[in-house]
């Protein structure tokens, strides 16, 4: 396996004549002293009417067997030297490109070579990508790129990342994609104004993006340089955490990270004016149900009250409804418990009114503290446009409150983009546990927002990087609109689902045994998925990884 055997000048084998060779696939007999393995990219040339036609392909299957053996037990006799046999070492190649496109099979006996450098880029159509972003590297260290046109809305948008929690490193890969976009020349002049919103849903992993990782050694830094990147933390990051449940002063509810973290909440007037009540009822079954109609009626009444307040008391964060001044979410609950709700929906059945009140009270226990009527709240909002990367922490919140925050922020972001009227500046949204926010069965208001992003976000310059354990449980239209599809380690049963039809059978089996840091990626311009590795995060993912600015070798600085 020396470097000499891997050079593109020396053939690694020839096209087999004992197996059918076609224009889209063929078998290679590997020569003695040479080797081919899964994911190797190879090339072979054929001459058709005096024109050289070059085939590029990826190895998706390798096998060895005895030639001259008839029975299983012949393996014992051959290994003992009693039976003369030869070893057949062959690899199956899935063609990725034919240049020029003359669909004839390669000739048996033609030399097959490993590709590197420019030939590698031709094999994966990278040479045709006018705008590209690095998405990882092959096992041999060749950089793999994605066409930026399929991520920024020019020809497509969105990425779907699937895999087992804790093993597939989905969030790590999503943040690596962002790092590659923002810390390279990929976005060009768009980089200065492009924005990203990252929802931190598990622990405080993403609350240290702006800190250098102390475990990044020379080898890890070199892996970034191979990809044309510099190892380091994210720049221009803003952190937002929900305000604590109790107390008049807004204080972010965080654990170990306090520096630079801003609390967030919404005023009661914002809640009423912007139709945010629907996101409190995150588990409404059907948009056509009586409960959904009642929510719409109440929202309309709340909006009238807020608009009236905008004219009479524009600085007041509360509202006045039915001649009652409301200064907190609890005030609103108390009012709706009385006859106000009956007045708003005279035609609603008593059971529907009771269901509305029950669900509103249940949700208020978890998210009511995020809607306040004090003036300080008016100054504490998630300004996602103020930083290149806005990390919104929701991991301390109950699921109901998480759904509320995600739905409200994405709705506002889409409204802001619509008011701008252009696809620039670009916005990238990273959302884990997508199957919870856009489930395949049922309906919720936030699902409508995510569908809007998936189907219309491309025209507004919004790209969703959604991560989930099981793509089979995510709304089909959300997954189908993702141009870049990525899988890490998958459960064996999940890998056989139709949502992973872009994987070959070999890739499905390999997905069940992938190591952390290894992903299988497919994109529109490639007919076959490609396995890539991405480097160890150069930004801290927990407090213990934060590099001491005074230097890790200084014990007094650590103290």
Quick recap:
With 559 residues, the protein is an alpha/beta fold.
Tell me what you see in this structure.
The chain has 559 residues and is α/β, with parallel strands linked by helices. The protein folds into three domains: 121 residues, Thrombin, subunit H; 247 residues, 3-Layer(aba) Sandwich (Rossmann fold), CATH 3.40.50.300; 111 residues. It is 30% helix and 23% strand. It has 18 helices and 22 strands. The strands form five sheets. Strands 12-11-17-10-18-19-9-20-21-22 form a ten-stranded mixed beta sheet, with helices on both faces. The protein has a six-stranded antiparallel β-barrel with strand order 1-2-5-4-3-6. Helix 7 packs across helix 10. The two termini are 49 Å apart.
Low-confidence stretches: 1-8, 551-559
Number of domains: 3
CATH superfamily of the largest domain: P-loop containing nucleotide triphosphate hydrolases
Mean pLDDT: 89
**What assembly state would you assign to the polypeptide chains in this entry?**
single chain
CATH class of the largest domain: Alpha Beta
Strand residue percentage: 15-25%
Radius of gyration over C-alpha positions, nearest whole angstrom: 29 Å
The CATH architecture assignment of the largest domain turns out to be: 3-Layer(aba) Sandwich
Q: Which class do the helix and strand fractions yield?
A: alpha/beta
Largest sheet composition = 10 strands, mixed
CATH topology of the largest domain: Rossmann fold
Helix content: 25-40%
Name the strands of the widest sheet in spatial order.
Answer: 12-11-17-10-18-19-9-20-21-22
Number of helices: 18
Strand tally is 22
- Terminal CA distance: 49 Å
């Amino acid at each position: 396996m020396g470097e000499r055997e891997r050079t593109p000048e020396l053939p690694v084998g020839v096209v087999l004549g004992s197996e059918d060779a076609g224009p889209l696939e063929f078998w290679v007999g590997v020569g003695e002293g040479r080797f081919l393995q899964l994911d190797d990219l190879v090339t072979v040339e054929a001459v058709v009417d005096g024109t050289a036609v070059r085939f590029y392909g990826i190895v998706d299957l390798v096998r060895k067997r005895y030639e001259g053996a008839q029975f299983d037990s012949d393996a014992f006799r051959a290994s003992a030297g009693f039976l003369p046999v030869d070893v057949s070492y062959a690899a199956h190649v899935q063609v990725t490109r034919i240049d020029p496109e003359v669909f004839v099979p390669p000739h048996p006996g033609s030399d097959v070579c490993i590709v590197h450098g420019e030939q590698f880029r031709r094999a994966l159509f990278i040479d045709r990508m006018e705008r590209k972003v690095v998405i990882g590297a092959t096992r041999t260290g060749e950089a793999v790129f994605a066409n930026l046109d399929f991520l920024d809305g020019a020809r497509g948008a969105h990425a779907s990342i699937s895999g087992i929690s804790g093993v597939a490193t989905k969030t790590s890969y999503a943040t690596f994609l962002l790092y590659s976009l923002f810390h390279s020349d990929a976005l060009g002049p768009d980089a200065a104004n492009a924005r990203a919103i990252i929802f931190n849903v598990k622990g405080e992993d993403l609350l240290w993006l702006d800190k250098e990782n102390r475990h990044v050694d020379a080898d890890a830094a070199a892996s970034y340089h191979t990809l044309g990147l510099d190892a380091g933390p994210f720049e221009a990051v803003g952190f937002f955490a929900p305000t604590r449940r109790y107390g008049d002063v807004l204080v972010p509810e965080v654990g170990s990270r306090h520096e630079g973290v801003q609390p967030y909440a919404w005023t009661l007037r914002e809640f009423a004016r912007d139709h945010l009540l629907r996101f409190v009822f995150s588990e409404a079954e059907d948009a056509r149900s009586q409960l959904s109609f009642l929510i719409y009626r109440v929202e309309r009444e709340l909006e009238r009250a807020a608009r009236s307040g905008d004219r009479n008391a524009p600085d007041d964060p509360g509202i006045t409804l039915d001649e009652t001044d409301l200064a907190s979410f609890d005030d609103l609950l108390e009012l709706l418990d009385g006859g106000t709700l009956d007045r708003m929906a005279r035609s609603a059945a008593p059971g529907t009114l009771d269901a509305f009140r029950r669900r509103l009270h249940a949700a208020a226990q978890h998210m009511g503290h995020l809607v306040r009527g004090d003036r300080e709240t008016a100054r504490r909002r998630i300004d996602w446009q103020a930083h290149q990367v806005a990390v919104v922490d929701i991991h301390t919140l109950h699921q109901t409150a998480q759904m509320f925050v995600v739905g409200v922020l994405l709705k506002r972001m889409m409204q802001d983009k619509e008011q701008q009227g252009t696809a620039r500046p670009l916005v990238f949204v990273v959302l884990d546990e997508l199957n919870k926010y856009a489930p395949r069965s049922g309906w919720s208001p936030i699902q409508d927002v995510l569908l809007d992003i998936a189907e219309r976000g491309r025209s507004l310059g919004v790209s969703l990087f959604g991560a989930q354990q099981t793509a089979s449980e995510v709304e089909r239209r959300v997954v189908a609109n993702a141009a870049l599809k990525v899988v890490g380690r998958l459960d064996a049963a999940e890998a056989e689902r139709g949502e992973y039809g872009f994987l070959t059978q070999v890739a499905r089996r390999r997905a069940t045994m992938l190591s952390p840091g290894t992903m299988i990626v497919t994109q529109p311009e490639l007919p076959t998925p490609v396995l890539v590795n991405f480097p160890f995060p150069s930004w801290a993912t927990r407090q213990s990884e934060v590099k001491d600015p005074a230097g890790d070798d200084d014990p007094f600085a650590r103290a």
